[in-house]
Write a sequence for this structure.
């Protein structure tokens, strides 16, 4: 049996002290000697106060690692150059072939919109669903159709009606303060934009004044023709009050003619004679002059002939000639559940206001004994077609305005009557001077249905200024149009009547509660309507089409945004509507 060998470990002697000697005198030939056993191993100093960490940590972030490195440097540990033997060294050749493989599932970051943005997105989705549903179930609509309303119910508190929240005390601020989106009305466009229409320009109506450069008044105003007749004003209506109201009568035998520009035979003859290069009616011009105040959608057709003449026109099937009611109010009229017959719906109120305005303009005049006939008769009245009817008292005053820059504007204006005012001629004598006037009527339908409504019967005699101020807020666009029409026609006086329903539930019978005369230019200053800005708007619109080729264009307001757009349309656009109306008229005959 062979005996096992035993190697005696190398034990250096230290005759001077305990422990291994400084020079151990090791023998390199002995494998147990420290020199041979630990040769080539790195050595670093070690302190018991050092905190031991992980040998390798692949889960900690890079920023945490950098922070630990900064902490060590700040405490004076692990200084630069220390433990160099343990620091990792990258092999250049090995690094070229290194590829990092991430086996973890990739996490996609989902975009979370802010709360306000999410509400807007949800509302847009609801509108898109509703529009698709309406397009599938409903037929063609006009802007007079009952608008769809989106009601946002918001509890008290944050921006609501309660105390506190972002809206402050009473919830005045914030998104839902003072109504907000709760009474949002989504209207339909007055005309559908077709795919073959080309957008030419777009304007933000509140900032459209920045595009207006020339705000001077016309250099010259010239009367070209007078047509029709005018009756005298009845002074009895100056004494009308709530104690002695006058019932409004229906002018059933009077014929009114809201003829558009292209259908006017007088304008056609003036265009052939080359009297001007821009043609329009006072209603269309006044609408464009004051369009920054509009809320409801509308559209105007512009036709440019090969010779360069411009005609501002309206569609025959449009609702342009119907008056609006409380268009600029904080809470405009809408269809209510407690109104089954819809007498306070926007389209019914529009018809009612138009009827009141026409009847009032004729009732305040005297009989035919005071009539003043002009050089030419009414160009739209035909005795054969209008048997048993007579034209309403109106004088058509064709005027030409020199706007400069080779713009000669010919406009058909309208006057409604003649009034006599005392004018001082000498120190002791006064003579009656004939002055041309226009007449319009504001109507009250139901004060309880309007926001901060004022009952006219309680206030109009003692606080007429408060009633007018409330109407200026609720019908700013309509009053501005009437004022612009009066300035265009050269009227010296503008008569405004205050007409109310006999009872709030009766939309067919009305009474005149008060009347008031205003000078058009003074009234324009009172409602902050600048005459120079009005003419500047027309110059800007004419300049848009000046360099455009001959053809047909459409100016329209966005139904839900304060934006006005200009489109170029094919020449046969809207011709189908005219043909349909002609067929209807023939079938009725």
């Amino acid at each position: 049996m062979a005996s096992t060998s035993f190697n005696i470990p190398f034990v250096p002697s230290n005759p001077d002290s305990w422990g291994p000697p400084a020079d151990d005198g090791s023998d390199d030939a002995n494998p147990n000697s420290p020199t041979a056993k630990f040769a080539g191993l790195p050595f670093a100093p070690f302190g018991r106060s050092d905190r031991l960490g992980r040998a390798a940590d692949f889960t900690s972030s890079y920023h945490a690692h950098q922070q630990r490195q900064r902490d060590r440097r700040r405490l004076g540990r692990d200084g630069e150059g220390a433990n160099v033997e343990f620091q990792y060294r990258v092999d250049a050749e090995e690094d070229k072939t290194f590829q990092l493989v991430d086996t973890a599932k990739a996490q996609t970051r989902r975009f979370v919109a802010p709360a306000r943005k999410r509400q807007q997105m949800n509302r847009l989705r609801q509108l898109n669903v509703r529009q698709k549903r309406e397009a599938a179930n409903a037929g063609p609509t006009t802007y007079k159709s009952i608008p769809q309303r989106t009601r946002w119910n918001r509890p008290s508190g944050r921006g609501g009606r309660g105390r506190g929240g972002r809206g402050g005390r009473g919830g005045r601020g914030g998104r839902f303060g003072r109504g907000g989106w709760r009474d949002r009305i989504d209207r339909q466009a007055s005309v559908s934009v077709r795919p073959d229409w080309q957008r030419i320009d777009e304007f933000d109506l509140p900032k459209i004044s920045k595009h207006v450069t020339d705000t001077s008044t016309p250099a010259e105003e010239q009367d070209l023709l007078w047509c029709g007749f005018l009756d005298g004003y009845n002074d009895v209506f100056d004494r009308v009050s709530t104690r002695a109201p006058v019932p409004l009568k229906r002018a059933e035998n009077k014929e009114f003619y809201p003829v558009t520009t292209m259908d006017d035979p007088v304008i056609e003859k003036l265009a052939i004679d080359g009297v001007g290069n821009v043609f329009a009616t006072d209603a269309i011009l006044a609408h464009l002059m004051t369009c920054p105040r509009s809320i409801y959608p509308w559209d105007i057709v512009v036709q440019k002939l090969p010779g360069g003449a411009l005609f501002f026109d309206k569609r025959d099937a449009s609702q342009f000639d119907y008056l609006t009611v409380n268009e600029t109010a904080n809470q405009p009229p809408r269809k209510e559940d407690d109104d089954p017959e819809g007498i306070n719906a926007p389209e019914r109120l529009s018809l009612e206001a138009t009827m009141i305005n026409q009847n009032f303009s004729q009732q305040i005049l005297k009989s035919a004994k005071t009539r003043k006939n002009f050089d030419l008769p009414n160009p739209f009245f035909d005795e054969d077609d209008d048997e048993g009817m007579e034209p309403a008292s109106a004088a058509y005053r064709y005027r030409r305005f020199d706007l400069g820059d080779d713009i000669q504007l010919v406009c058909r204006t309208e006057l409604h009557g003649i009034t006599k005012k005392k004018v001082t001629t000498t120190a002791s004598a006064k003579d009656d001077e004939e002055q041309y006037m226009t007449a319009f009527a504001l109507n009250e339908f139901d004060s309880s249905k309007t926001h901060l409504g004022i009952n006219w019967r309680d206030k109009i005699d003692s606080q007429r200024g408060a009633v007018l101020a409330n109407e200026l807020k609720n019908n700013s666009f309509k009053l501005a149009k009437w004022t612009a029409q009066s300035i265009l026609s050269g009227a010296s006086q503008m008569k405004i009547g205050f007409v109310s329903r006999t009872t709030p539930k009766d939309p067919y019978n009305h009474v005149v509660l008060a009347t008031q005369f205003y000078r058009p230019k003074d009234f324009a200053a009172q409602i902050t309507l600048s005459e120079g800005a009005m003419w500047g708007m027309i110059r800007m619109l004419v300049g848009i089409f000046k360099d455009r080729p001959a053809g047909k264009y459409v100016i329209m307001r966005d139904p839900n945004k304060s934006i006005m757009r200009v489109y170029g349309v094919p020449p046969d656009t809207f011709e189908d509507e005219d043909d349909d109306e002609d067929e209807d008229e023939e079938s009725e005959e």
Observations:
- Confidence is low (pLDDT under 50) at residues 108-114, 138-182.
- DSSP finds 13 helices and 19 strands in the chain.
